[in-house]
Amino acid sequence: MTELLKLSGVHTHIGRYHILQGIDLVVPQGQTTMLLGRNGAGKTTTLRTIMGLWQASKGEISLAGMRIESRATPDIARLGVGYVPESMAVFSDLTVKENLVLAARDGPLDDAQLDWIFGFFPALRRFWLSRAGSLSGGQKQMLSIARAIIEPRKLLLIDEPTKGLAPAIVMALIECLKEIKRKGATILLVEQNFFAARELGDNVLVMDNGTIVHRGEMAALAADVPLQERLLGLSLEAHQ
């Protein structure tokens, strides 16, 4: 399999804290790779370091063979990397439409792409001219994801997208991410919801104390409860 993203010996310090301690990982092109681990293991820091929001203090990060660890976040985004943070990054004072117009850097909004997004997240059409700050938490998450996929991306970095969402919205989100992958995107996904992880993941990486402690197929981990308990402290079903 062709590797799209590769981290080699990546360390990240935040102030006096040494968070990532020599991360080595590969994300294959065209697949969804789950990044799992206990709270505080370094998952969010890994995504933020890839995106350039926090600078790696050591090591190499390559996107399609191009070194990016010293690039600024806007430059990384222009290379085709989309980021959906756990914090649901939207512009609260702007409308849904204005949020998506800002995200579509390459030109006007594409009507076909919008219709495709509305098919998964109809609330965005309904609140098209409403301020994003007036949306519910689930609707803000829909908008955050829509901002990341309004244009085709080589790589999507997504941090716990189902957290706090109603089951119906989780199902729509799963179908949306499956369709994004079918269209050729590569996804690195942090997720605590067992059902979503099992449904979406091709591969899995498990983190602990700032390092990768397990790598393999998601289906194999989903079928091995003792391994889940050893790596995560409890079974994946307990994360639902």
TrEMBL record:
Alphabetically ordered keywords of this record: Amino-acid transport, ATP-binding, Nucleotide-binding, Transport
A GO molecular-function descriptor: ATP hydrolysis activity
Membrane spanning stretches: none
Top-level division of the source organism's lineage: Bacteria
Alphabetical list of PROSITE patterns matching this protein: ABC_TRANSPORTER_1, ABC_TRANSPORTER_2
Listed GO biological process terms: L-amino acid transport
Pfam family, one: ABC_tran
Every ABC transporter domain range: 5-234
InterPro entries: AAA+_ATPase, ABC_transporter-like_ATP-bd, ABC_transporter-like_CS, BCAA_Transport_ATP-bd_LivF, P-loop_NTPase
PANTHER family: ABC TRANSPORTER ATP-BINDING PROTEIN, HIGH-AFFINITY BRANCHED-CHAIN AMINO ACID TRANSPORT ATP-BINDING PROTEIN LIVF
Function: Involved in beta-(1-->2)glucan export. Transmembrane domains (TMD) form a pore in the inner membrane and the ATP-binding domain (NBD) is responsible for energy generation.
Protein family (similarity comment): Belongs to the ABC transporter superfamily.
Protein known as: Putative ABC transporter ATP-binding protein
Originating species: Bradyrhizobium diazoefficiens SEMIA 5080
Lineage: Bacteria, Pseudomonadati, Pseudomonadota, Alphaproteobacteria, Hyphomicrobiales
